Amino acid sequence: MTENIIIAGSGGQGVLTLGVYLARVGVKEGFNVTWLPSYGAEKRGGFSFCNVAVSDSEIYSPVIEEPDTIIVFDQRSLNTYAVMARKATTVIENSSLVKEDAAVAGTKIRIPASDMANDLRAAKVANIVIAGAYIAFKNIFKTQTAETVMTEMLGSKAGEMLEKNIAAFAGGMNYIKEKYRNRI
Amino acid sequence: MSEKELIKGNYAVVEAAIDAGCRFYAGYPITPQNEIPEYMSHMMPEAGGTFIQAESELISINLVFGAAAAGARAMTTSSSPGISLMQEGLSYMAGCELPAVIVNVMRGGPGLGNIQPSQADYFQAVKPGHGDYHMITLAPHNLNEMYDYTFGAFDLADRYRNPVIILADGLLGQLMENIELDRTKKPELLNAPKPWALTGARGRHGQRILSLLMQPGVLEKHNFKLKEKWDLITKNEQKFELTNMDSNPDYLIVAFGTVARVAKGTIQKASADGIKVGLFRPITLWPYPSEALKEAAKNVKKVFVFEMSLGQMVEDVKLALGDASKIEFYGRPGGGVPAAGELYEFIKKRVK
Question: A37: which chain B residues are within 8 Å (Cβ-Cβ)?
Answer without folding.
Answer: 174
